[in-house]
Fold this protein.
Amino acid sequence: MKERLKAPELRFKGFTDEWEERKLGDITTWTKGQGLSKEYLNNERYGSEAVHYADLYKFSPVMQEVIHWTNSDDGRIIPDNSLLFPASDVTPVGLARTSTLKLSGVKAGGDVIIGQLSERINSSFMSYQINANSKKILPLITGTTVKHVQAKSLATMSVTITNMAEQTAIAGLFERIDNLIALHQRKLDLLKEQKKGYLQKMFPKNGAKVPELRFAGFADDWELRKIEDILKKIKGSMKIGPFGSALKKEYYVEKGIKVYAQENIFKNDFSLGNYYITEDKYLELQSCELIPGDIVISMMGTIGACSVFPETSEKGIMNSHLLRLQTNDSSLAEYIALQIKDSPFIKQQILKLSVGSIMSGLSSTVVKKLKFPIPSIEEQRKIYLFFKQLDDTITLHQRKLDLLKEQKKGFLQKMFV
């Protein structure tokens, strides 16, 4: 007997019928791929298109692309209107995944489970539904070292269906969202590749006195300077945060002078964090105060993560995992920070000087040995502003991408029963 269910929270106008519950096995014919050993798989476009279990983690349900090709006669042709499940090694994301392929003649390897759906079910709709409720698959996974899932287990999964018109409308919405996500991801990847190329060309390589690519109007040789040559000639122009014993957790209060940490550097956002100390404790540790224009470097974790402390940030000190640099008038703080964070030349120095370190990170000893290629202050400013504009564009596309993913997540939660 069919069990009637309530409708989803959000649906397209004109659809009012209640959704029905089914077992996946009642609407699916199960088969399994065959053959296609790894030695027969390749990335060159010849032979037959093929899908391997690992490919199921690499593309969205609507992306019409296959990771591998094969020149083997083995492999089962995937029928139209099918769901694909990895049969083994489902742990890369902790869950089994489904994908809908809309290509004819594609072959599936032996580690792919194929579920051909009945004609009254839209495979894209069902794929999105299963992935939206992927926790249902967790109890079906067996094995310890290598994880497995079987067709007979997947067949017991409860799913819900509506009429074909509503299925098609829902599937179409998520396909459009996924296409937008893929578009923004490609733009983001392209921008990051462009930035990588500019970084290689806009700073001198080992031994060179000028970069391969520079702005018009600049012809002078760059100078290779030690860190001591670009810092202010004052005590504390290079300063590491207070020792752990001087800034224990028990010294933190709800309101007061802010304490900045690695999170602020990793995310380049000094508004984050809620660690504070009293005025008296601040006066004790005032030598660790951050001043607008200071270069702040993380000394642990991500090597070379750094930011410039902005004018808009509230008064505060750095914690023990940060190091502060204060540049002189001949060196722009933003330009030096850009080099530490992104320049291949500086990264090579850091990696070379950090060999043998117990932990992944920097030390004041390593920073003191760094040498920076320095042009005129005008050229420094041009380079910094160029990369700032590029970074701002990358950040904008990343935000759009994150927003689309959040919107998709919200729709998935509201558009399925």
User: Anything to note?
Assistant: The mean pLDDT is 85. DSSP finds ten helices and 20 strands in the chain. The longest strand covers residues 112-117.
